[in-house]
Model the fold of this input.
Amino acid sequence: MAHPQHPGRTSRPLAQPQLPAFCRTRRPITTTLRLGDLRQLQWLLWLVLALQLSTVLLVLAGPVPPTAAPLLAPVESRP
Done:
């Protein structure tokens, strides 16, 4: 829907949005990654997986039942 032009007003072109300067630069982005870094990341992922698995197993196991009372009462011996 077009808005009517008011008399005496000239239409001006709308300003185009400008990206920030850091978005307009054309620097290549490269990252060097060593094999040792990948090994450390792999061990960290295994550790997180083991912790999550142990937590799931604890939740599935449910609450620990209370200790049962002994079946036989201790016998007092009189001298």
